[in-house]
Each structure stands twice: as structure tokens, then as C-alpha cells.
From TrEMBL:
Pfam family, one: BLOC1S3
Name this protein carries in UniProt: Biogenesis of lysosome-related organelles complex 1 subunit 3
Organism encoding this protein: Darwinula stevensoni
GO annotation, cellular component aspect: BLOC-1 complex
Domain of life per record: Eukaryota
Span list, region Disordered: 1-57
Membrane-spanning intervals of the chain: none
Lineage: Eukaryota, Metazoa, Ecdysozoa, Arthropoda, Crustacea
Biased composition (Low complexity): 34-49
Family per similarity comment: Belongs to the BLOC1S3 family.
């Protein structure tokens, strides 16, 4: 039974002859660290034509498709409630504007009634202070 090594693109080597010296590894790690995106938001989806070094195996294609579906599902899960709450807030804002208009109309009417009551009070006090009531005779 003979053992043959299978080379799979993108995987680390298993033989000791391909290993590098420790000093060389740390330099490679530093380069890998600097090329690795620092946050998930820095990842981008590119079409195969945009990146000539990109792998086009069935696995890679399926992974990209699954990632795109996952991103779309996540957006849908997040967008749905946000859109609903935005609509709720819009409705509340419109209701508040209607209530504010009603309140302003009510305040205006109350001011008019208050002014009318003050005028009536002034007229009643004029009638009470004048001698006009003493000249009336009830028979």
C-alpha cells in the first residue's frame, strides 16, 4: 500500500521539508495580519472578474452564494422590524401634529372666551357701580 500526498490549493503543507525557518514565519504572519481585514465591515463581495487570483472551484462558488443568501437574510431580518417601527413613528408623528393643531385651536377658543368673560365682568361692574339700578321701581 503506497501513500501519495494530495495537494489541495489553499491548505497548509504537511511535510517538514516545506516548512520555513522560525524567523521567516514571523515575517509572513506580520504580512498576513496586515492584509487581513480588521473588521467585518471591511469585507466586500466581488465578482470573479474583479479579482483575477480568486478561486473558481464549485466550493468557492457555493460559499459565495451561501454568503450572499446569508447577507440578504440578515438584511431582511434587520430591515423588516426597522421599517415597521419607522412606519409606526411616522404615524405617531402625524397623530401628534393633528393633536397639536386641535390643542392650538382649543387654546385660541379659550382665549376668546376668557376675553369675553372679562368684558362681561367689566360691564357688570359698571352696572353695579352706577345708580341705574336704583331708578328702577318694581311695582
Amino acid at each position: 500500500m503506497s501513500h501519495q500526498g494530495v495537494v489541495v490549493m489553499g491548505e497548509a503543507s504537511e511535510s517538514e521539508s516545506e516548512d520555513e525557518s522560525p524567523g521567516r514565519k514571523s515575517e509572513d504572519n506580520e504580512q498576513e495580519d496586515s492584509s487581513t481585514p480588521s473588521s467585518p465591515s471591511s469585507f466586500s463581495l466581488q465578482s470573479p472578474s474583479e479579482d483575477p487570483g480568486r478561486r473558481e472551484s464549485l466550493l468557492h462558488v457555493k460559499l459565495r452564494e451561501a454568503n450572499a443568501e446569508c447577507i440578504q437574510s440578515l438584511e431582511t431580518c434587520v430591515k423588516g422590524p426597522l421599517v415597521d417601527k419607522t412606519n409606526d413613528l411616522r404615524g405617531l408623528s402625524q397623530a401628534m401634529m393633528r393633536q397639536q393643531t386641535i390643542l392650538q385651536d382649543t387654546a385660541s377658543m379659550l382665549r376668546e372666551w376668557t376675553n369675553t368673560l372679562f368684558r362681561l365682568e367689566d360691564q357688570l361692574s359698571k352696572v353695579l357701580t352706577s345708580n341705574a339700578l336704583s331708578s328702577f321701581k318694581i311695582s
